[in-house]
C-alpha cells in the first residue's frame, strides 16, 4: 500500500458515536465477512480496563467508534461471536479482555497478526509497527502511544494514530494467510488464537488469586491457607470497587499478614502494614487470619510443588534445546515451542501421560509428541 493511499484512508476515517450508526457498522462488518479491529483503553486507576476507542477497518474504510457515547454494545458482541467473520487484530489478548468487559463477548475466528508472524518465522512478540515496517517498508507514528484516550475531543494526531493502527492489518493478514497456507499452518494459527481467547476469558476466579502473589511459595501450610483467603478477598473487593488490587492491599502486605498470623493486626502497624489498611479493613482481615489459625492440620493446603531439582533442570534444558532445534528447522519463532513456562510442567514430580499440559496437546504435539512420549515413558520407568 502506497503512502498516498494510506493517507487517503486515514483522512477519510469516519467517526461513529450513535447506537444506530454503530449497529449499522457492525452489520456491515458481518456482511463483509472480514474486519480489522483495534482498541484504545485506559487502566491506571481501575481494576477493569476503560474502553476509550474501537477502530474498525472494512475493506479500505476506517471507522473510529466512540464507546463513551454508545449505549448498546450488543451489535459488537454479535459481530465478535459470529464465527463466519474473520476478525484481524494484532497482539489480541488485551483487546479481547477490554472488549469482553465492555460487551460480554467471547470472540470467535480471530486472526492475530503477531502470532501469525511467529508462525511465519518473525521474532516472537514482534510489534505492529516493526511488522508493518518489515512487510511494507512503512514507518508508522509513535507519538500518541501514551495519549489520554478518554479525553474528548480527540486531537487530529490521535485520530491519525488510531486510524493507522488498523490501516494495514488486512493487507498484512492477506500476506500471512498466503504464507501459512503454503506451509500448512493456518489451522495451527486458528488453534493458537482460540487458546489466547480462552486464556483471557477463562482466567481462574478469585479462589486462585493467591497464585499470582509474589513469595507465596515461601509460606508454610497455615500461612498459605491464610494467603488463599486474603488474596481471594482482595480480588473480589478490587472487582467490586473497580480499583487496582495493589491500591487496596499490596502483595507484600498480604504475605506479611499471612506469615505473622497475628492475634491482632495492630501489632503489625510498625512492621510495614499501613495504618489505613488496618483502619478500613482490619476487622475483615483479622477474621480471615483467625480462621486460618483455627484450621485443623487436615484442613490445611498441601505443600506446593518443590522447585525443579538440579537434575530435572538439566533435563528441562536439554528438552528445550531439542524444541528450539525443531522450531529452527520449521522456521518458527523458537518461543512458540520452547518457552520454559510451556515445558516446565513436563518435569513436575509424578507427571503422568494424561497430565501433559493442554498447551502441548494440539499443534505442538504434532511436532514435540515423540519427544514428549519418550520423556514421559522415561519418567514412568
Written description of the protein model:
With 381 residues, the protein is an alpha/beta fold. The longest helix is centred in the middle third of the chain and has 21 residues. A 6-stranded mixed beta sheet has the order 1-4-3-2-5-6, sandwiched between helices. The protein has 17 helices and 6 strands. It is globular. It folds into 3 domains: 199 residues, Ribonuclease H-like superfamily/Ribonuclease H (Nucleotidyltransferase, domain 5, 2-Layer Sandwich); 94 residues, DNA polymerase, domain 1 (Orthogonal Bundle), CATH 1.10.150.80; 71 residues, no CATH class.
Q: Please give the CATH class of the largest domain.
A: Alpha Beta
Structural class: alpha/beta
Counting DSSP H or I runs of 4 or more residues, the number of helices is 17
Helix percentage: 40-55%
Shape: globular
Lateral strand order in the biggest sheet? 1-4-3-2-5-6
Reported for the largest beta sheet, the result is: 6 strands, mixed
Q: Low-confidence segments, ≥5 residues, pLDDT <50? A: none
Summarize the helix and strand pattern as letters: HEHEEEHEHEHHHHHHHHHHHHH
- Percentage of residues in strands: 5-15%
DSSP summary, beta strand count: 6
How many structurally independent domains?
3
Compute the gyration radius: what is it?
A: 24 Å
The span between the termini is 58 Å
Residue-averaged pLDDT, rounded?
Answer: 92
- The CATH H-level superfamily of the largest domain is Ribonuclease H-like superfamily/Ribonuclease H
Amino acid at each position: 500500500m502506497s503512502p498516498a493511499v494510506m493517507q487517503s484512508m486515514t483522512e477519510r476515517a469516519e467517526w461513529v458515536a450513535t447506537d444506530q450508526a454503530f449497529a449499522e457498522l457492525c452489520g456491515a462488518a458481518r456482511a463483509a465477512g472480514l474486519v480489522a479491529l483495534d482498541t484504545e483503553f485506559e487502566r491506571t486507576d481501575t481494576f477493569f480496563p476503560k474502553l476509550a476507542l474501537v477502530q474498525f477497518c472494512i475493506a479500505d474504510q476506517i471507522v473510529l467508534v466512540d464507546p463513551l457515547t454508545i449505549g448498546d454494545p450488543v451489535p459488537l458482541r454479535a459481530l465478535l461471536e459470529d464465527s463466519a467473520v474473520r476478525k484481524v487484530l494484532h497482539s489480541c489478548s488485551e483487546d479481547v479482555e477490554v472488549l469482553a468487559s465492555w460487551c460480554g463477548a467471547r470472540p470467535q475466528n480471530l486472526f492475530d497478526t503477531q502470532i501469525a508472524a511467529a508462525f511465519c518465522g518473525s521474532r516472537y512478540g514482534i510489534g505492529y509497527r516493526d511488522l508493518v515496517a518489515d512487510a511494507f517498508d512503512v514507518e508508522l507514528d509513535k507519538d500518541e502511544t501514551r495519549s489520554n484516550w478518554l479525553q474528548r475531543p480527540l486531537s487530529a494526531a490521535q485520530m491519525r494514530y488510531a486510524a493507522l493502527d488498523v490501516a494495514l492489518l488486512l493487507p498484512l493478514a492477506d500476506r500471512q494467510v498466503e504464507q501459512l497456507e503454503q506451509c500448512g499452518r493456518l489451522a495451527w494459527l486458528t488453534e493458537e488464537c482460540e487458546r489466547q481467547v480462552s486464556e483471557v476469558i477463562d482466567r481462574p476466579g478469585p479462589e486462585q488469586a493467591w497464585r499470582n502473589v509474589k513469595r507465596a511459595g515461601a509460606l508454610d501450610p497455615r500461612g498459605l491457607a491464610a494467603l488463599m483467603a486474603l488474596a481471594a478477598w482482595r480480588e473480589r473487593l478490587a472487582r467490586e470497587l473497580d480499583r487496582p488490587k495493589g491500591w487496596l492491599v499490596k502483595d507484600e502486605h498480604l504475605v506479611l499478614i499471612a506469615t505473622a498470623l497475628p492475634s491482632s493486626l495492630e501489632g503489625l502497624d510498625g512492621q510495614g502494614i499501613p495504618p489505613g489498611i488496618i483502619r478500613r479493613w482490619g476487622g475483615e482481615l483479622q477474621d480471615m487470619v483467625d480462621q486460618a489459625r483455627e484450621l485443623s492440620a487436615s484442613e490445611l493446603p498441601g505443600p506446593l510443588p518443590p522447585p525443579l531439582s538440579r537434575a530435572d533442570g538439566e533435563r528441562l534444558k536439554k528438552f528445550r534445546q531439542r524444541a528450539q532445534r525443531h522450531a529452527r528447522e520449521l522456521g518458527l519463532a523458537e518461543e512458540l515451542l520452547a518457552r520454559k513456562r510451556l515445558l516446565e510442567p513436563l518435569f513436575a514430580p509424578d507427571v503422568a501421560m494424561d497430565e501433559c499440559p493442554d498447551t502441548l496437546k494440539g499443534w505442538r504435539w504434532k511436532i514435540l509428541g515423540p519427544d514428549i512420549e519418550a520423556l514421559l515413558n522415561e519418567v514412568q520407568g
